[in-house]
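**User:** You know discrete backbone vocabularies at least as well as I do. Would you mind producing a protein record, from residues through to fold? Write it directly below this note and I will take it from there.

**Assistant:**
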Amino acid sequence: MAQQVHTTRRGLLFGTAAVSAGALLTACTSNDAGNSKGGSAEQAPLADDKAGKHVTIGFAGPQADHGWLNAINVNARDRAKKYKDVSLEITEGSNDTATQIGQVETLINKKVDVLVILPADGKALTQVGLKAMRAGIPVVNLDRIFNTPQAYRCWIGGDNYGMGLNAGHYIGEKLKGKQNARVVELAGLDSLELTKQRTKGFDDALQNYPNIKKVARQAAEFTVESGQSKMAALLQANKHFDALWNHDDDQGVGALRAIEQVGRDDFFMVGGAGALSAFQAIKADSGVLKATVLYPPTMAASAIDLARALGQGKGIGGMAEFEIPSSVTLYSAVVDKENVDRYMPTGFN
């Protein structure tokens, strides 16, 4: 997940979403939407239904060793199949930077029209992004950002600061009438900048609610196992709190196991990312999980839209500019029982 610029916003926090990048691309690219499938953007609108110049898109992502990363691959493949004028050259994905650099260089040598790259490490892959751009192949940098904008034509990704901000405001509004409210935070890997951004957004939001105090924070590792063990430690150390924000729905599976093992139901939980299991639990409304804040993997589908538009020399429908923008930051919508049905098709396993 990305390291990107903070975007502060106050409106549309509670169960409503801003338009996705995929919707913004209406009228830039083709064809009919198909049946919905978990983890995919299949219900999102495609661009204009006029087939254009054929575009070969090279897609290079990291190894799909996490539910969100697998959903990235699903979204890219499914979106490309929707377009009769798009061919997708997709690599096997690797968390080894040298391997991924080699894969991107192979795509450059194949002379693809456009590259979509979600780098395992943005800094490490900056040079190969520059190489592609210098070879005349525009790059759509997906989520984890390169060190320089010279290495990409367009960046599209999620809003980590916005995740924390919207989670904090959602919890704040739910607890604003409660005196001496207490919240805890189950973060992700503290070595990652994105984790720091999510915590910063959360803390900034809570400053608007003087009745709320964050009494504990524990860092996990974006895995089920770490979520379970770290949540167990939080529960043992904190006998009473009113709300929990968990940064990641994958580690949230483990957190919920720990909560169920001790039989706690005296607080509510807000997750992060948008896993199908989280959506199902929110819809069932039978446990502590009441909402999750999106970090939408549908960004990969939108990256394919952007790549196609670049290859065909088109802009974005609904905007006056002839060119696509240099960056697109997705909105971190809060999904709760009121709007979960809308987002259910995008939930990833």
Summary: The chain has two domains: 21-157+297-330, 160-294. The two ends are 17 Å apart (CA to CA).
